[in-house]
Amino acid sequence: MQIYLPIAEIPVNIFLVLALGLITGFLAGMFGIGGGFLATPFLIFIGVPSAVSVSTSTNQIISASVSGLLAHFKKGNVDIKMGLFLVLGGIIGSSIGVSIFKILQNAGQIDLVIALTYVLFLGAISLTMLSDSFKNFIDKKFGMDWQHHHDDRVKFQWLLRKIDKLPLKTYFNKSEVYISIFVPIIISFGIGILVSLMGIGGGFLMIPAMIYILQMPSHLVVGTSLFQIVFIASNATFLQAIAGNNVDIVLGALMIFSSAIGAQFGSRIAYKVDANATRAFLAVLLLLICFKMMFQLFAEPSNIYSLEILK
Amino acid sequence: MKFRLFLIIFLFIIHHFDARAVPLISGISSNEINVDTEFKGAQILLFGAKSDAGNIVISVRGPRKNFIVSKKENLLGVWYNGERVRFKNSYSFYSLFSTFNNGRMIEDNLNDFELGKNNIKFEISQNLSPSKMNEFRIQLVDLLENKQYFASNTKPIDFLDETLFKVMIDFPKNILLGTYVVEIYLINNGSILSYQSIPIYVNQVGLSAKISDFASNQSVIYGLLAVFIAIFVGVLTNYFFVKFIKK
Which residues of A touch B150 (CB under 8 A)? Predict the structure, then answer.
């Protein structure tokens, strides 16, 4: 059954979109990621314009994050004070991100920049994950030691020493850290820009940053990250709707419903399967998406001239 | 069929048509095209009668839009949009029918009326060398032809007898919205003896049209609504799965 998307201005098969949402949600729930990294490329591959794919994926992230956040709230796993400073930086970052997005759109370079950032991040993430999975596999099979058991925090010592000199230090009761308010603001500012440009939640950067730079206890990390994503993704979605008219509410609703259901099943399966194998599977999937994106960048266009009809 | 009904009414009018008073009269089967999500393109029938000697030229022009033509360039293997030329207020649809058996004749005679593809005037907002301007103008017309917005050739006009003629105007399924104008000219020895202009309104109808209007006219409410739906579904799924399904 075909359905016409009012903002993307293309007809799509409704079952294809629902299936994409289910798969995205399932994988997101299974791996504990937001799903933006999967949803945006999937939408681009079925012919939705890049700008609409990114903005609509941001819309879907709100829903996935709210659902996860509520579960963490109940367990008391959210540092609201830290979260609010992250929101402050993230709101500024994502607003600037939407402005950059708009400028690139007017210059006709948004498709290029979206594809490039995806190739870069997907390539880096999937290769890191693959090498980790491979090392784990070798460890188990042959009992070898790659000496990765030392504390990763050592790597960040130089950065932490610099951070320690920043002014306006405050104590965060819940996380039990004493740190300058500029640290969470700057971190989420940078990630906020990526949220707007790529249609992702940014958890893959935010969570390591919380552990290694903010030095938050690990049980608070996911809940607090989801807390700030809800606000930042809402801000980005709202601004994309008013600045660029890029949010397709029909596509968004279909993706939101189907991915919410997929996520519930994914998170239940997650306990029952081998973590290392599923991580390797996700890494391969992300690498394939990376290659497909790369192909779009390098393939010779059938016509080197293209037409844009302005509204 | 509605074409047949139209034809009967039209022939009735023609019957009372006083040739000496007006040398040219014509009508179309519909003034309106409604585009919905199922829209597969449309055909409109134009019928006319002429009482004087001369050639008929019929042009169909779509609403003026702004276009950008980009030329892809390659840097280290990556294709990106290089040069971009912006065309202001250009026709988004152009189709021509004529009884001249030689396209050049119309173009030579009637360039002031923008009849004939090579006579269409384009307005470019930046400074370009004449050769660049020509390159991008040709590409714009080419791209518009690929989308079936521009007809690639001048089409002939069917004559039923010496005075009655008809043409079928094709509109593609990706048609742009706005007011289209059909113009019928009777031309003899390079001068226009008679001229008639008929508008066709192309409107979008249905739910998706309403949503897209809402998104551009009430973007603040639309944006808030998108955020609200997402939050609502998030809360709902959490509630639903915690309450009823629990692992």
Answer: none
